[in-house]
Write a structure and sequence with these properties.
Pfam families: AAA_31 (PF13614). This is Sporulation initiation inhibitor Soj. It comes from Candidatus Yanofskybacteria bacterium RIFCSPHIGHO2_02_FULL_38_22b. The protein has eleven helices and seven strands. It has one domain: 3-Layer(aba) Sandwich (Rossmann fold), CATH 3.40.50. By secondary structure, the protein is an alpha/beta fold. Helices cover about 40% and strands about 15% of the residues. The protein is globular and about 50 Å long. A seven-stranded mixed β-sheet has the order 3-4-2-5-1-6-7, sandwiched between helices. The structure holds adenosine-5'-diphosphate and magnesium ion. Magnesium ion (MG) binds next to α1.
Length: about 250
């Protein structure tokens, strides 16, 4: 039975999609079967793996809004064991359409439950908001990973996110656990970055991943080639950092 991990932070540009793609790649490289569900209408996870985002009739929108079977929509990536349930811009409209639906918070959870048999991990890449798509993703999850960019306003918004996680736990999904906070875009030469790292450890004692993702041009460039770091630059620092994250995730979810 797959463990479902939701990668969530309502801020944009903090490294959610980069983490989703590269964590999925290394989980697969370590022998796990992984499905990445792209829940962002910008479809960056889909595009970043070199998968066409133009398929208007077979993407996660149709799964959650029209109850279509996700199985035939799943695409294999260039990495063995790593599949994607793609998104498309149509998903932007789903937020509004879901509002009037029954069981609107449970639609993703219900759609994914038959797929749990086929994978070791299902990762969900969230949009940059706390709207119904993110609520669906948190309701479907067993765990949440919170990427935090090492910048001045890093902690801002985190209390709101944790409040949302608590509300979901009380009302919609009592199983949800914070697996960890992941520091991203870290530059050890930058004093502010080091300060933020210490602050995050102070605020989340014992809940920060040992793996820290450095700021590197490799991670910024890889998506434009439709490749994860394991293929784009397998010997880079970023590659070993994401491998380490995958190892930690496996250990924590055993
Ligand atoms: P989100 O999904 O939270 O909006 P992304 O993963 O798309 O964030 O990252 C935002 C931008 O920063 C992207 O252009 C991405 O390529 C780049 N990026 C992400 N992580 C890093 C990193 N560790 N170093 C350098 N650039 C990064
Ligand atoms: Mg994203």
């Amino acid at each position: 039975m797959a463990r479902i991990i939701t990668i969530c932070n309502q801020k944009g540009g903090v490294g959610k999609t980069t983490t989703a793609i590269n964590l999925a790649s290394y989980l697969a490289a370590l022998g796990k079967y992984v499905l990445l569900v792209d829940m962002d209408s910008q479809a960056n996870a889909t595009g970043g793996m070199g998968i066409s985002v133009a398929d208007e009739h077979h993407n996660v929108y149709h799964v959650i809004v029209n109850d279509q079977n996700p199985l035939p929509m799943i695409k294999k990536t260039s990495i063995f064991g790593f599949d994607i349930l793609p998104a498309n811009q149509a998903l932007a409209g789903a937020t509004v359409e879901l509002v009037s639906m029954e069981e609107r918070e449970y639609r993703l959870k219900n759609s994914l439950s038959p797929l749990r048999m086929n994978y070791d991990y299902i990762l969900i890449d969230c949009p940059p908001s706390l709207g119904l798509l993110t609520i669906n993703a948190l309701t479907a999850g067993d765990y949440v990973i919170i990427p935090v960019q090492c910048e001045y306003y890093a902690l801002e918004g985190l209390s709101q996110l944790l409040h949302t996680v608590n509300l979901i736990r009380e009302g919609l999904n009592s199983d949800l656990q914070v697996l960890g906070v992941l520091l991203t875009m870290y530059d050890k030469r930058n004093q502010l970055n080091r300060h933020v790292l210490n602050e995050v450890h102070k605020n989340f004692p014992g809940r920060v991943f040992d793996a820290v993702i450095s700021r590197t041009i490799d991670l910024a460039e890889a998506p434009s080639y439709g490749k994860p770091i394991i293929q784009f630059s397998p010997n880079s620092k970023a590659a070993s950092e994401y491998r380490r994250l995958a190892e930690e995730v496996i250990k924590l979810t055993q």
